[in-house]
Amino acid sequence: MLSESKLYQTLRYVLLVLAVAFVIVPLIPVLFMAFKTGVEFRETSVFKAPGSWLNLYNFAYAIRVGNLFGALFTTLAILAVSLFFGVNFCCMVSFVLQRFNFRGKKLVMGAYLLTMFIPVVTTQVVVFRIIYALGLINHPGSLMLLYSGVGIVDIYIVMNILNTIPVSLDEAGLLDGAGYFRIYFSIILPLLKPAIVTLAVIKGIGIYNDFYIPNLYLIRGAQTLTVALYRFFSGLSTPFEVVSAAVLLATIPMLILFLFCQRYIYNGLAGAVKS
Asked: 188 Cβ partners below 8 Å, 6+ apart?
C-alpha cells in the first residue's frame, strides 16, 4: 500500500511538472525575442538569451506604431464597467436563487443550464441584429452590454460560497428590522469577497483576452488590446521581435492581477467545487 502511495505521488508530480513545462516553455522564446535586435533574431536560436536585457527598442516601437496604450485604455474601461455590472448581477441572482423558494425557480435554473449547451456562434446573428438596432455597433457600449451577462458557472461559484453563510444571519437581520436589500448589501455582500474576487479575475481574464466579440462589434474606431495586437502584427512587414514585445506587454497586466489575487481565486474555486 505504501509503494502504491509513493507511485501515485511520483506520477502526480511528474504530470504537474509536464503541465507546467507545457505552459512555460513556449513563453520563454517570446520573452527572449522581445529583447533581441533584428540581427540577433535572425542569427541566434529562439532559446538563446538576448545579448542585452536593456534593449527596449521593440517595446517602444510596438507602443508607438501599434497604439497599444490607447487600446489598453479602451480595454480597461470596458473591463471595469463590465465587471462592475456583471459581478453585481451575478451576486444578486445567486442570492435570490439560493435563499428564496418561489414559483418558476427551477425554470430559471433550467434556462441558465440550457445556455451551456447552445454554441455562442449560433446566436450571434440575432445578437448582432439587436446590437445594431440599439445603435451600438462600433461603440464600446456593445461590449459592456454583452460582457455584463451572468453565466451558470458564475452562479454556481457564488451559490456555493452562499451555502457556507448561515441563514441565521438573514434571520437575525430580519429580527432587527432590516429588509432584504439591507441584509444583502450589509451582511451577505461583504462575506462574498472571495467569490467576488474569483469572478472578477476569471471574467476579467476572459474579457481581456477575448478577440471574437471585439473584432465583430468594433469594426472601426476604438479597439481592444487583442484586436490592436492582431491588426498590428497581421502585416507581413512587422518584425517578429516587435510582435513578441507587443505580446509581452499585453500579458503583463493580467499577470500582475493574478499574482495579487491568486489567494482569493484558490479560495473561491475551492468553495465552488465543494459538495
From this structure: 95, 162, 165, 169, 170
How would you label 116-154 residue by residue, b for 16+ Cβ within 10 Å and e otherwise?
A: eeeeeeeeeeebeeebeeeebeebbebbbbbbbebbeeb
Q: Kindly tell me the sign of the dihedral angle through the C-alpha atoms of 214, 215, 219, 225.
A: positive
* 163-180 mean pLDDT: 86
Report the C-alpha dihedral over residues 44, 49, 50, 56, rounded to 10 degrees. Answer: 130
In CATH, the architecture of 73-224+258-272 is Orthogonal Bundle (1.10)
Indicate the average pLDDT of the chain.
83
Within 10 angstroms of residue 235's Cβ, the number of other Cβ atoms is 7
Residues 67, 69: Cα–Cα separation, whole Å: 6
- Encode pLDDT of 89-130 as tens digits: 999 999 998 888 888 888 888 888 888 888 877 888 888 999
**Which range is most confident: 56-65, 85-94, 253-262?**
85-94
Give residue limits of the domains in the chain: 73-224+258-272
Q: Is 74 exposed, middle or buried (0-12, 13-18, 19+ CB in 10 A)?
A: buried
